[in-house]
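Protein modeling request. Please complete all fields; requests missing the sequence field cannot be processed.
Requester role: graduate student
Desired output: 3D structure, token encoding
Chains: 1
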Amino acid sequence: MKIVDMQTTLVSRPLAEYVGSGHLYPPTARDILFLRVDTDAGVSGTGFITGLGFVDGSEIRVIRQIVDTALKHLVMGEDPAFTEWIWDKMFRGTIRFGRKGAVLRAISLVDIALWDLKGHVYEAPLWELLGGHKREVPVYGSGGHYQAGEKGHEKLRAEVQELLDVGFRGIKMKVGGRSPYEDFERTAAMREAIGPGVDLMVDANEGWTVHQAIQFAKLAEPLHLAWIEEPVANDNLEGYRRIAESTATPLAAGENEYTRYGFYQLIHQGGILVCQVDVTRVGGVSEWMKVANLASAVGIPVIPHGVHELHVQLAAASSAVPMLEFFPSNSPIQSFITECISGPDTVKQVSGGTMQVPIGHGFGLSYDAEVIDRYRTD
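Delivered output (378 residues):
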């Protein structure tokens, strides 16, 4: 069997409302890049990655260019069964301008599509191909963004109550966009709203200095947070180490880290205790599994970043994953993804705080062609 074609499709839709976090610039749109890989046997595989920001000003168009011009000629004609060989060929073939960032996101997209293709070839869901560990995965609810004109904490409390009502036993909220003292007040209000029996996590999106992160961590000790996520930039390993040494609260990171090499440094030098590897960034399924095994070897849980539609298969295949991040369908940064995926329903809703693993071939996803055609940018 040989790969005979690779086709990318880019879609974008503006966000319906302001979504604030620790980022310097708030996102303006949700972009999605799809890739279909075809073979001479008539079997195809599909993958996707996401971005935030209008297409012309976001990383997605750059990633598409890399797939179409730098990776396609490396992959065409290869046997899709040899995912490890193809990954190595892509990584080594782009190493002079890659290693991290957009090139690794492009490699991730190709690898995701190839593993979906494998599932269709062998007529099995991905979690079974990867070994299989569990048929359902606990999830936590992600949200708590800053709101435009936010005053008080009423909207924050209403949002978290919706999550609790559908069974989430863990909630994550945004910090890092205000002073440590203001963020502590918001976090304390959230803890009061959810009570002591629900896990509470905070995500700074690299928004603090090391000093600010230490300030917040000391203030928040009585709140018994499950983790503080991305207090500073992933590259600041010394900063992570200093923050980790200042608090008993675990540090989480990894959504903006790439390959097993980057995670080795983040774990061993940065002192993180929660590994948030993202299949759409780290290098795809092939590299995600290596990082999960690396984290497992040192006793660190893997709790993937976002994209639960893809990660549920990986979580079900690995003993290192205790739970997943889940964005409800009404979240402004999730709703467009949910609309583009026509099924199954198990990737759109949770019951009792758990997510059922799709049983279709590969990632087990189907896509809404009408919605994708409506928002195409090419």
